[in-house]
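User: When convenient, might I ask for sequence and structure tokens for a protein?

AI:
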Amino acid sequence: MNHIVTVQDAVTAFADFMEPTDAELDAIEQEMPLILADVDLLDAQIITLDRLPNEVDARRIRRARNRVLSERRALANRNAGAALPGVGA
């Protein structure tokens, strides 16, 4: 006789009580400008998938890439400043 085993852990892994903590939501909020910049870069790259990029497309991709780099730098600077004790006091 085979016993049927429940997969309670797999079912409850996505239960309502498993929501993000306030710290996780704050981290997402801090990273949101970078996430949006990445989305803009992907949009600009997706536009050029089915055709050769023209000058406007190339500028759009270049601006989006520069924005991503700028947001990464800003996020790294914010995180570095928050991690160092006594900075900005």
User: Anything to note?
Assistant: The chain has three helices and no strands.
